[in-house]
């Protein structure tokens, strides 16, 4: 069994993909826009509560690889500001120099939750929320677990 993260960016998915490509070397392995979907039958509704209109250029679904991990992303249905609460994505860096580079790149336009530094459980660890509201933990473990 495999559990994967699926993030909804409420209209900012393409911006997020470009950001993660630059900050973390993310690779987009699949991308489908709403315009790529087959036409849906029109539903009539007496109360006007039919399906929401979505910008056809927005991203319906994309697969992204960061290191050895796949993350799925979407613009979603543009239902309001996304709230990424109660979780964080953790990324392991091979050394302190790379950890600092990733931490600073992810944190551009975001907010540091815990500055990057040595801890009792890691050679280097820090927490930052990126400009999209996604929380990240950057870690260099005490021992090589790979």
From TrEMBL:
Matches recorded under InterPro entries: Glyas_Bleomycin-R_OHBP_Dase, PhnB-like
Pfam families: 3-dmu-9_3-mt
Domain PhnB-like, first and last residues per copy: 3-139
Descriptive protein name: VOC family protein
